[in-house]
Specification:
The protein is built from eleven helices and 13 strands. The protein is an alpha+beta fold and 378 residues long. It starts with a strand and ends with a helix.
Length: 378
Amino acid sequence: MPKSAAVLGIPSVDIVDEWHQISLQNPRNTVFQSPHWVLSSTERETSSKKLLISLEQEKSLLGMAPFFIERRKDSLKHLRLSGGDYEDIAVKPGRELEGVQTLLCALREHRRHWDLANFKSLMPESVLMAPFINGDGSIDLAPERMESVLGGLKIFVEPHHRAAYIRLPETWKQYESVLGKKLSWQLGYEERRRHREFASVEINLASKSSLESELRSFYSMHSARRLAKGYQPHFDNPITCSEFLETSKSFLALNQLQLYTLVLDGIVAGAIYLLTDHNRIYFYGSGFKREFEKHGPIKALLMHAIKEGINKGFKEFDFLKGEGDYRDRWATDYRQLYRMYIANDSLKSNFVLGLKKRKSESLAQERSRELASLTMKG
């Protein structure tokens, strides 16, 4: 029988090392399941209670499930996955179903800590979605399939949002051929303008010696951009910046960080922060100085990063979450993501889960009617 052990607080160095190896070995996991990312306190509320569960079978570490408890207006204790844009648990490759079953045993065992699990942005190939994947790769969310997975606890899985990404071809020329005419023209025009108006145009990749100074530039430009849009900056205090620096150092040492800066006549005009794993590049964040906006700093850096990704054999360039429609202009594909709710079998959690299920079904019916109406008009 599967067994699990709850670890509250900071895990040992040995567990972190093994956790890291598991997240690297399983292609279903992303960089956001790495302990170097998950354990960074910049990724969750400091006031939230953390619940780190190690999944074990026969005294061997099977995987790690990092959670935090979030209280909301409904007075329920919401169980959330730590991580980032793509949530999941880290499990050894080939043992995903065992990992999910072991996790469910752990959740039943520790149900006093939580009321309603709310896991967002699950990739279709994620570990948590493994029980719902058919042999042909399709997703089966039939009620009887969900009930057979949990064996007691109530679960509801629904389509969440879509994530834009580029399916990288073998050459830049192949990718350029599918770009819109407007974006293709802008890339060429702005590149010519940069070289015409500046004596020196450089794109630099952060190294161990330059990382700290280039991150400071990134913090400043990223924060200014968010403030201009009316959002709270992510990097608005020294503690957050220091913690993110340590996380970045870890990923740089693992060759999983690409921090590019565009330097025009010695002045940093823009920066993009990318993370990598397996065969995928993630566009985490960017920033630029307003006075250089007409020179297209972010487009220049994206073009350079995509070219480098193609040359290095990466298969996808993922835009993650973000504001604006720029992702649609660059993307070639969209990935359907999923949200999973699990109730701890209390009356209130079951009631709230039922409300969410009915709301989702009502929205799905409304979309079907709209689609049917458009089809008839067409």
